[in-house]
Specification:
Strand content: 25-35%
Number of domains: 2
Distance between the termini: 64 Å
Shape: elongated
Order of helices and strands: EHEEEHEHEHEEHEEHEHEEEEH
Number of strands: 15
Oligomer: single chain
CATH superfamily of the largest domain: Formyl transferase, N-terminal domain
Largest sheet: 7 strands, mixed
Length: 316
């Protein structure tokens, strides 16, 4: 039987989640009755409390906002969620573990907008890990959530290509928009009374995508240039990639590309004013944009002309 209006609870926190929320708010057949998001966090130099991007959208549309710190340790939060009597919950990068009582509360359960083609990447950083690993495509999976880590049955999948220029930011933006349209299509199926096709995941095909850390951005120049290129693109804009010079000054590696240079040398040595750095497997990576410690982004040639770098020096 089809429904006229679907009562939706939206659960999300960062910028990635915003297009989906805005799309659902604009849909006349969907009533976003509540929003769940992470509590305000200190941010900026003044460490003032800042509302999450999803919280800000909800406030602009006068939608009730809930910010529990935990469901597992907060039975009151679980009861409050159940009392909303939602038809479905839409979850997009929310950041809290949902116990079974929460997952089972809405009529149609909780649907997750997951930023990978499941079961390929499960975990906190599927966007960046896909680029880092050299995958040629990524995508969105709408999943019926269960108590496992991204292990629920898959409902609908859509893909996008990962190209040689794709960065963590550009793929994030593409998948954010794709997730918005894909979840709306699934909710339209529910509204129209269509039976959802639930595909069980093959656990043997899954990889874990752990959370990113700043230390991971340290470049190992003994790796092949292709691997370094993927890492720089994957970690743009956060946590970013970096290297140290011989005086332990840190340089952020903002942009670059695989170089055609055939010169050889010790890994990490800057061999040209164009930014060619020797890498493993007799390859070179050309750094096209760099940011010295306490400095502004600049080209390597400008860094050399300004005395911040010199050819022949070694990055470590």
């Amino acid at each position: 039987m089809s429904a006229d209006i679907l009562k939706v609870v939206f659960m999300g926190t960062p910028d990635f989640s915003v297009p989906a929320l805005e799309n659902l708010i604009a849909n006349p057949r969907i009533d976003v009755i509540a929003v769940y998001t992470q509590p305000p966090r200190p941010a900026g130099r003044g460490q003032q409390l800042r509302l999450s991007p999803v919280h800000q959208v909800a406030e602009r549309h006068n939608i009730p906002v809930y910010t529990p710190r935990s469901f597992k340790k907060g039975p009151q939060a679980v009861a409050e969620f159940a009392a909303l009597h939602a038809d479905v919950a839409v979850v997009a990068a929310y950041g809290l573990i949902l116990p079974k009582d929460v997952l089972d509360a809405p009529k149609y359960g909780c649907l997750n907008i997951h930023a990978s083609i499941l079961p390929r990447w499960r975990g906190a950083a599927p966007i960046q890990r896909a680029i880092e690993a050299g995958d040629t495509e990524s995508g969105i999976t709408i999943m019926q959530m269960d108590v496992g880590l991204d292990t629920g049955a898959m409902i609908l999948k859509r893909t996008v290509a990962i190209r040689p220029q794709t960065t963590g930011q550009s793929l994030h933006d593409s998948l954010s928009a794709l997730g918005s349209s894909t979840i709306e299509d699934v909710l339209e199926m529910i509204l129209n009374g269509e039976e959802l096709n639930l595909e069980i995941q093959d656990d043997a095909l899954s990889c874990y995508a752990p959370m990113l850390s700043k230390d991971e951005g340290h470049i190992d120049w003994s790796k092949p240039a292709a691997e370094i290129d993927r890492k720089v693109r994957a970690f743009t804009p956060w946590p970013g990639c970096w290297s140290l010079d011989e005086n332990s000054r840190r340089f952020k590696i903002l942009e670059g590309e695989i170089s055609s240079s055939s010169e050889s040398g010790s890994a990490g040595v800057l061999i040209s004013s164009e930014g060619d750095v020797v890498c493993g497997d007799d390859s070179c990576y050309r750094v096209t944009s760099i940011q010295p410690e306490s400095g502004k982004p600049m080209s390597v040639s400008d860094a050399i002309n300004g005395g911040r770098l010199k050819t022949g020096q070694k990055f470590v």
